[in-house]
Amino acid sequence: MTQQHVFIIGSKGLGSYGGYETFVKRLLDCHEGNGQIQYHVACKQNGDGAMAGNASGSFSYRGANCFKIPVPEKLGPGQAIYYDLAALKYGIRYCRERGITEPIFYILACRVGPFLKRYARQIRQLGGQLFINPDGHEWRRGKWPYLIRKYWQLSERLMVKQADHVVCDSIAIERYILKTYGKYEPRTSFIAYGSDLAGSQLADDDQRFTEWLKAKGLRPFSYHLIVGRFVPENNFETMIREFMASQSQKDLVIIATANDKFLAQLEARLNFSKDRRIKFVGTVYDQDLLKKIRENAYAYLHGHSVGGTNPSLLESLSSTKLNLLYKVPFNQEVARQAGLYWDKEKGSLRRLIEKAERLSRQAVQEFGQAARQRIEQAYSWPLIASEYEELWLTKGGEARAK
What value does the mean pLDDT take over residues 217-246? Predict the structure, then answer.
């Protein structure tokens, strides 16, 4: 039986916490290891003195060959581009040296479009195919300067042009790819991101949780929760402003990455520090603790406006009963009737927060059951992993149809 070799490029590795990193680890965790598929995973290793494409060692995880790619720290923001190209170069050489034919190279995110053509040609010389995952609309993110956003947009276009297959984690993203790049006649598949249904390993009286609550001045179900990158396109300004305008007797707990500049801008516009209900509590990297915090939130507020299937939304649907979501196609596609929706019109979220706090206990339970059922039916990791493995086995070795 001929093995299908799949090289996954773009994740930092298995020990990092992030969307792509979690995806790769869960894909390998759910891999049955029946010999049909052999995974090779690039892992970023910071350090100078390495030539592009040279791996500095490898290790095995769940049968996957995980190869380390040293990346010079002096490259700064250019590290990600260097890393992807070095991993491509290494993977192609690995195939040549071992006589591997018809490999699939799966690149996560669209960072290297302007440099991809030569590598795509080399992959096809091996009889292989180039798959990409465009993630969301990276070029629309407000955190990037204008020229960086233009680069992202160009890179996305060139990667779609060169790809044999585009895997989208959102139906809305798939529609966007087909409409925007129709002239390239892209072949696409929709395979969602996944989430765990298992609850937190922490008991209600676990000291890690109770001490965290005490330190933040909180009680279970006495707070609304926001978790996410602290960037403008996640609509923090709207959520904080609307919460401040509400009559809520609960707190608003914000778990987010640091961004002092953006925080100062919001304080200047909203003067939120005078509202004792608004609590920025930093980051929480302990995943069991974070899940426990989610499980004990009264409601989760989700303001993401850019991207496909957002991991933090899936995590919330599997943990928090009430989910108040910004009304965009990505979020509606995921939650459907299991969420309640708001828009940026003044008063929309304020009214929804007050409505949510008036819901009966039974109504809250029903929303929670619907949310977990949605995850179980469409977003569980075993389901996502099986869909990927079916894709590798059915698409592997196909001739480029362009």
Answer: 95
N-terminal to C-terminal alpha carbon distance within the chain: 28
Question: Which residue has 């001929």 as its token pair?
Answer: 2
pLDDT in tens, 8-18: 999 998 866 67
The model scores a pTM over 0.90:
no
Please report the sign of the dihedral spanned by the C-alpha atoms of residue 92, residue 94, residue 100, residue 106.
Answer: negative
The per-residue pLDDT for range 377-401, each reduced to its tens digit, is 999 999 999 999 999 999 854 533 4
Q: What are the beta bridge partners of residue 299?
A: 224, 322
CB 109 within 8 A of CB 10: yes
CA distance 114 to 73: 22
Helix/strand/coil for 52: coil
Bridge partners, residue 225, by sequence:
253, 300
Cβ-proximal residues to 114 (8 Å cutoff; 6+ apart), any chain: 154, 155, 158
The label of the residue with tokens 């920025």 reads 280
Residues 47 and 27: their CA atoms lie apart, in Å, by 27
Amino acid at 351: R
CA pair distance 348, 326, nearest whole angstrom: 10
Residue 17: exposure state from Cβ atoms within 10 A (0-12, 13-18, ≥19): exposed
> Is residue 91 within 8 Å of residue 117, measured between CB atoms?
no
Contact 325, 343 (CB under 8 A): no
- Please list, residue by residue across 150-175, b when 16 or more beta carbons sit within 10 angstroms of its beta carbon and e when fewer do: ebbbebbbbbbbbbbbbbbbbbbbbe
Which candidate, 88, 46, 93, 53, places its Cα nearest to that of 70?
46
Ordered alpha helix ranges (H), 62-110: 79-98
Distance CA 17, CA 27 (A): 15
Q: If you ran DSSP here, which 8-state letter would residue 307 be given? A: S
The answer to whether 227 and 290 are in contact (CB under 8 A) is yes
The tokens of 360 are what?
A: 């009966």
Decide: helix, strand or coil at residue 301.
strand
- Alpha-helical runs (H) found in 171-300: 171-180, 207-216, 236-245, 260-270, 287-295
Distance between CA 99 and CA 2 in Å, rounded?
12
Length in residues, the chain: 402
**CA contacts within 13 A on the Cβ side of 123:** 31
